[in-house]
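Example 184, ligand zinc ion.
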Amino acid sequence: MDTQTILIIIALLLLVCYMNQETNRKIDIENNKYIKRLITNGKPVIEGNDNKKSTDKKSTDKKSNDNKKSNDKESKNINFRKEIENTHKRCPHTGMKSKIIACIQYPPLNTGFLVSLCCPRCLSEIQSDFARPQQDHNYKITKKGEYYYFHGKDKKGGQIAPKCTLENTKIVREITKNELSTPS
Ligand SMILES: [Zn+2]
């Protein structure tokens, strides 16, 4: 192979990398826009709402079962709120006071997670880290007990990372008083 061929291959690889990152970024923007729209447009359209309505009409036995099920959900759990209280007021990246909420797409689990950060710069740093192949990640999201935790630059523990749902976003907003941010 001559130098020119090698250079062309490198250029193509860089282009593919860039496009992949660009797609991830667009997905994140859309995710955040979607949740923001749900919050600001008032009417909560939580997934599965229609199902719940239809089961409500069924027998009371079934209803109490459903209630029990929804009580088991992470958002209803007291520990879940406590963990948000304890970990979402500080940025897991800098240790400073958190100011924004962001939905971060985590490719290894193919899921979006909510984190509270101090600034958009931390957000783009985490996003570009997760856009790389997993073995190159500096940060990670792991399951501990029943919840997921984000581990950032700041090595103190980790921040509970709820899934990006409307319900969870509302809880994090309520506790941190921060707003959802769209990546720039
Ligand atoms: Zn920051």
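Summary: The radius of gyration is 20 Å.
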